[in-house]
């Protein structure tokens, strides 16, 4: 009970002599320092809000405008064209008994200041409007590499003029354009083009008829409502996408929604688990401090930072029977820690300051050394977050809505994030490094199904041998946001904080640190926990995962072919899938729409007629000259689709929102119903390396991030995540299900690698074949006729 007494600032007892008041000066000091830190954060947040609110101007520019107006007036000029005099007429001369409250000269100065302020706000509004119009221009994305038009040059110069200097993280948010609503006929046309190669003639003719009926009747009505929403909301997609794709899902989050991120591939900075935890958690706090101060530089003026607000923001999914919701708290000063079936509260701030890495290591070691056993039901409690959502919502309402269980659950949900201390050793190690890497991925994705809190924004996982990783909940933000955090944490851990020669964190430990607090439970619903665990365990056991680091080549070799690396890999995936399954399939590639306010993702349908024509030509033994031409055509098509998706010209989010509107109106659309029921058997995503400057692949080539991955979307399909690292490495994360006899992650991985090698050999300049029996267009037409 020592920690409980330390938390009490004062005690009093009633004696015959009166009231005996005892003050704890140490506790009062802690309260004072904690409050002081909180107020400093409020002041910083207020200052940043003011700076962001007047951007691209600055608060000091107001003084410049006031001085300029006053100086002009003293030269007997009236820059306001009579407005200052009008304002002066309405200022009070007296107030009650105070006559001559403002002299004429004083009223003139006050009128000039008021006019200057109005002028300043008008200039800010005009600059923001101009910047918003400038950021609505996306023609620069469609220009050839190295060929910049005069229009784009003028546009870039104007953006630099209107975007101001030294922007904070959220400075550009108010100037970003809203996501445009495409025309129904354009979306339908692009959909039919993407669907043609995957349908027979009869199926395509039927779908074309449904599309035309929709376009000419119901589509226009739904579009009207969607445009109305787009005028009112910042983004006509994001809130519905968050609700209907993520928060209304009643299946398990684990595997189906959550994703993971890995540690360095070849290096473990320290083998001491507590030390790695100390640096990792401290680096997370440093990132949160930079985020709160808005010191993280925006990627560019035309890139939304909206979801960064949720990072490190004490976010949890709060669930009801039919719909979850995201709850966001601010300024949590502790994390919830899980170890050997017990839950702890670990404070990360003391005496108004952030704990040092060495102090966090000391606290983590205290948890690791704690011999107390879990209470009945505690060890596997988190399985409720891994199973179906309805049983968890019902159990929460019945058993966790009051008393000690509610207090402990609140402690977990209001924590900055969740920390799992695993007794396992993971990583690419031992006699079977490839197999261990696969097991490492599965451990991060689902663990033991009860040692990750899947409702938290993210869980930091720390293994016994010093490896780490994370598991992230998907609804609050997409992978690039969390990847940005994890890049900073990994590099800060190794290159800035570092370790002693013995592998411990640097620094000293304050003697007054209170120990971590064990959370208490009274859990009568152990049968429900076991049922949820059984559902989650069945799902986890079915996941077939393979992590494939390709070190033979990378972006450098691909760029020599003068092909976009992303297009190169996507076409390789089409070739690999065709060789693996003997057919083509609907393919999902995630693209970001952060050029727009509150933008999240859009779908790139990367299985195109051009890519299919190329694959058939290559597999059909056509000449290299023809295949090269078809390959470049397919790559250009893919790049065009990707740019269209990024600039608001995608297909699937528009159709998704039209479908939601139809449901609200109670209208049935056979066309939309069929489109929304299509199965994505190949779901892909690139995780870009965003902060290359934090890594040093020349002097520290072993400090290479491994990226992350996700579970399969379809029961009979594949999930493929990839990250391009430096010039000479590509990491692939491939998932599928054991229950499907047609899928095998290792075989598909081998097919992808062979496809990449074959494409490099095809496009290598020194292996060009000058002979050409037929023109590429002739071959393409012949293959299309044969396919149809």
From TrEMBL:
Record field: compositional bias (Basic residues): 779-788
One Pfam family cited in the UniProt record for this chain: CPT_N
E.C. code: 2.3.1.21
PROSITE patterns xrefs: ACYLTRANSF_C_1, ACYLTRANSF_C_2
Iron-sulfur is among the record's keywords: no
Any one annotated GO CC term: mitochondrial outer membrane
Compartment annotation: Mitochondrion outer membrane
Region feature Disordered, mapped onto this chain: 766-788
GO biological process: carnitine metabolic process; fatty acid beta-oxidation
Key word Transport present: yes
Catalytic activity of the protein: (R)-carnitine + hexadecanoyl-CoA = O-hexadecanoyl-(R)-carnitine + CoA
Location of the Choline/carnitine acyltransferase domain: 179-753
Predominant localisation class: mitochondrion
GO terms for MF: carnitine O-palmitoyltransferase activity
Official protein name in the record: carnitine O-palmitoyltransferase
Organism: Cyprinus carpio (Common carp)
């Amino acid at each position: 009970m020592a920690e409980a007494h330390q938390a009490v600032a004062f005690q009093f007892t009633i004696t015959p002599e009166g009231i005996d008041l005892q003050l704890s000066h140490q506790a009062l000091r802690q309260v004072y320092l904690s409050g002081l830190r909180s107020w400093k954060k409020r002041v910083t947040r207020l200052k940043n809000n003011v700076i962001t609110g007047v951007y691209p101007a600055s608060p000091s520019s107001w003084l410049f405008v006031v001085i300029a107006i006053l100086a002009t007036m003293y030269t007997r000029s009236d820059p306001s064209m009579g407005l200052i005099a009008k304002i002066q007429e309405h200022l009070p001369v007296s107030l009650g008994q105070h006559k001559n409250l403002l002299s004429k000269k004083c009223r003139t100065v006050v009128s000039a200041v008021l006019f200057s302020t109005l002028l300043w706000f008008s200039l800010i509004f005009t600059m923001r409007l101009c910047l918003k119009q400038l950021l609505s221009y996306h023609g620069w994305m469609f220009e050839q590499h190295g060929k910049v038009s005069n229009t784009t040059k003028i546009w870039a110069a104007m953006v630099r003029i209107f975007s101001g200097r030294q922007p904070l993280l959220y400075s550009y948010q108010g100037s970003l354009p809203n996501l445009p609503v495409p025309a129904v006929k354009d979306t339908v046309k692009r959909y039919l083009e993407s669907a043609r190669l995957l349908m027979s003639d009869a199926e395509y003719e039927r779908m074309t008829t449904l599309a035309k009926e929709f376009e000419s009747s119901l589509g226009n009505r739904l579009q009207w409502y969607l445009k109305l929403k787009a005028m009112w909301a910042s983004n006509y997609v994001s809130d519905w996408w968050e609700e209907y794709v993520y928060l209304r899902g009643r299946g398990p989050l684990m595997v189906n929604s959550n994703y993971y991120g890995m540690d360095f591939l070849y290096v473990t900075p320290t083998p001491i688990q507590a030390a790695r935890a100390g640096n990792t958690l401290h680096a997370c706090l440093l990132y949160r401090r930079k985020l709160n101060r808005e010191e993280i530089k925006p990627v560019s003026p035309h890139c939304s930072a909206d979801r960064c607000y949720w990072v490190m923001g004490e976010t949890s999914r709060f669930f009801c029977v039919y719909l979850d919701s995201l709850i966001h708290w601010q300024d949590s000063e502790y994390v919830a820690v899980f170890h050997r079936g017990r839950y702890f509260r670990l404070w990360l701030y003391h005496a108004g300051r952030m704990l040092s890495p060495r102090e966090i290591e000391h606290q983590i070691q205290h948890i690791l050394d704690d011999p107390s056993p879990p209470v009945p039901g505690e060890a596997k409690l988190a399985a409720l977050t891994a199973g179906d959502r309805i049983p968890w919502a019902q159990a929460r309402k019945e058993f966790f809505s009051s008393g000690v269980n509610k207090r402990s659950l609140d402690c977990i949900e209001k924590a900055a994030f969740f920390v799992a201390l695993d007794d396992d050793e993971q990583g690419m190690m031992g006699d079977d490094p490839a197999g261990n890497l696969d097991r490492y991925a599965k451990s991060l994705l689902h663990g033991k199904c009860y040692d990750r809190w899947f409702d938290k924004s993210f869980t930091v996982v720390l293994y016994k041998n010093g490896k780490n990783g994370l598991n992230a909940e998907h609804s609050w933000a997409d992978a690039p946001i969390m990847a940005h955090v994890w890049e900073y944490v990994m590099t800060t851990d190794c290159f800035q904080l570092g370790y002693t020669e013995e592998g411990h964190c640097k620094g000293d430990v304050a003697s007054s640190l209170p120990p971590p607090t064990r959370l208490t439970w009274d859990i009568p619903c152990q049968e429900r926990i076991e049922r949820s665990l059984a559902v989650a365990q069945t799902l986890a056991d079915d996941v077939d995962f393979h992590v494939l680091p390709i070190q033979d080549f990378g972006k450098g070799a691909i760029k020599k072919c003068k092909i976009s690396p992303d297009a190169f890999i996507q076409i390789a995936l089409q070739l690999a899938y065709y060789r693996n399954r003997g057919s083509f399939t609907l393919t999902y590639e995630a693209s970001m729409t952060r050029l727009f306010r509150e933008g999240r993702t859009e779908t790139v349908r990367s299985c195109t007629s051009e890519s299919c024509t190329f694959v058939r030509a290559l597999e059909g033994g056509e000449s290299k000259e023809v295949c090269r031409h078809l390959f470049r055509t397919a790559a250009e098509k893919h790049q065009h689709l990707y740019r269209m998706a990024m600039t608001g010209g995608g297909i699937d989010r528009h159709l998704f929102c039209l479908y939601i509107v139809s449901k609200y109106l109670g209208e049935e659309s056979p066309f939309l119903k069929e489109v929304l029921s299509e199965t994505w058997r190949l779901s892909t995503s690139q995780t870009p390396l965003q902060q290359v400057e934090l890594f040093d692949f020349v002097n520290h080539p072993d400090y290479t991030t491994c990226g992350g991955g996700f579970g399969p979307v379809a029961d009979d399909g594949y999930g493929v995540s990839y990250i391009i690292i430096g010039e000479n490495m590509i990491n692939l994360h491939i998932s599928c299900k054991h229950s499907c006899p047609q899928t095998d992650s290792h075989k598909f991985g081998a097919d992808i690698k062979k496809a990449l090698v074959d494409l490099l050999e095809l496009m290598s300049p020194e292996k060009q074949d000058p002979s050409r029996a037929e023109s590429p267009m002739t071959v393409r037409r012949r293959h299309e006729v044969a396919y149809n």
